[in-house]
Amino acid sequence: MTASNNVHLHEINKFGSRAERWWDPQGEFKTLHEINPLRLQFIKRFIGIKGARIVDVGCGGGILTEGLAKEGADALGIDLSEELIDIADLHGLETGVRAQYQKISAEDLAAQQPAGFDHVTCMEMLEHVPDPGAIINACATLVRPGGMVFFSTLNRKPKAYLLAIFAAEHVLNMLPKGTHDYKTFIKPSELCQSARNAGLELQGMVGIEYNPFSKRFSLGKDIDINYIAAFRRPE
């Protein structure tokens, strides 16, 4: 599968149509805003962000990309939605956060800049493409030897369907309806196998847990729903 067809156009259109609401911390992407500090917390367990050249694959409207830039990274966010790239650029201009954005696929950027980045992030994106393995391969190509690659995605377990789709989208309205499709969720074993095939070595994995009573997210041991993993490209 080539970069040109490793994309669901309806996914690009779905998220692009909501671009103007991406940066509303109390809006339909509130969850992304709430878990972003946890992502950065996990990333900082493995790398020093300041001064590092980092590409954020599938950056959306730039929430994580801006977070990395605020921590001192030379951050590039890439996405195939022109609307989201425009919103990310605009928000950076409004806040003065110096992150760069480009409309390009991970596969094409990997062909242009192999081993061109100190580290790579790819959050909540793998479950939205036809061939997640191709994205994992591209991320492994983009990172320099000795660099880290971070993925987050959803586990294909009934618990994830009940909480990430039924509860989060239809009961609690934490996410827009139709955000996720259960059959595209990825088991940790599948992610790790694809990463090994791409030459990456697992360094750590945690779950992103939600407490319905405190209405707060935290990092924990439960990887049955949403999880984040760190891999290293050997030198």
Structural class: alpha/beta
Strand order, sheet with most strands: 3-2-1-4-5-8-6-7
> Which percent bin holds the helix content?
25-40%
Please tell me what the overall shape is.
Answer: globular
Strand content: 15-25%
Unreliable spans are none
Helix tally?
8
CA-based gyration radius:
16 Å
Summarize the structure.
The protein is an alpha/beta fold.
Summary keywords:
8 helices, 235 residues, globular, alpha/beta, 8-stranded mixed beta sheet, single chain, 37% helix
Architecture overview:
With 235 residues, this protein is an alpha/beta fold. Helix content is 37%, strand content 24%. The chain has helices at 9-16, 30-43, 63-70, 82-95, 106-112, 132-142, 158-171, 188-197, and strands spanning 53-57, 74-79, 100-103, 117-123, 143-154, 201-211, 216-220, 226-232. An 8-stranded mixed beta sheet has the order 3-2-1-4-5-8-6-7. Strand 4, helix 6 and strand 5 form a beta-alpha-beta unit. The radius of gyration is 16 Å and the shape is globular. The protein starts with 8 loop residues before the first helix and ends with a strand.
Outline the secondary-structure elements.
Elements: H1 9-16, H2 30-43, E1 53-57, H3 63-70, E2 74-79, H4 82-95, E3 100-103, H5 106-112, E4 117-123, H6 132-142, E5 143-154, H7 158-171, H8 188-197, E6 201-211, E7 216-220, E8 226-232
Parallel strand pairs: 1-2, 1-4, 2-3, 4-5
Antiparallel strand pairs: 5-8, 6-7, 6-8
Helix pairs in contact: 2-3, 5-6, 6-8
